[in-house]
Amino acid sequence: MPRPIAFLSDYGLADEFVGVCHSIWVAQAPGVAIIDLTHEIPAHDVRAGALALVRSVQYLPDEAVVVARLYLNVKFAAVVVLEEVHRSRQRAVIAE
Question: Which of 30, 42, 54, 58 has fewest C-beta within 10 Å?
Fold first, then answer.
């Protein structure tokens, strides 16, 4: 069974982008569970993306793969988001 995908983006839901991502993942890994966290993060708002991930990561299955896609105008911003998710996951595990 494929690992579940937790998906967060700034794509919005007005067009086909989110659906295309789902289609590609399902074609590559039939039966994959996709968890849509949100697709309404404002473009360039790394802090909002990080906060959404921090608030939701404790509820994700341990084996989930997190895909966070934000339109970034700086290269290091994605690292900041993923590092914050990693720290949050560590805090959630320690709190248990």
Answer: 30
pLDDT tens across 55-95, in order?
998 899 988 988 888 876 554 444 445 555 555 555 444 43
User: How many C-beta atoms lie closer than 10 Å to residue 19's C-beta?
Assistant: 11
CA dist 57 and 34 (Å) reads: 14
* Reported pTM: 0.72
Which residue do the tokens 């993923």 mark?
82
Round to the nearest angstrom and report the end-to-end CA distance of the chain: 27
Nearest to 4 by CA among 86, 62, 52, 50: 62
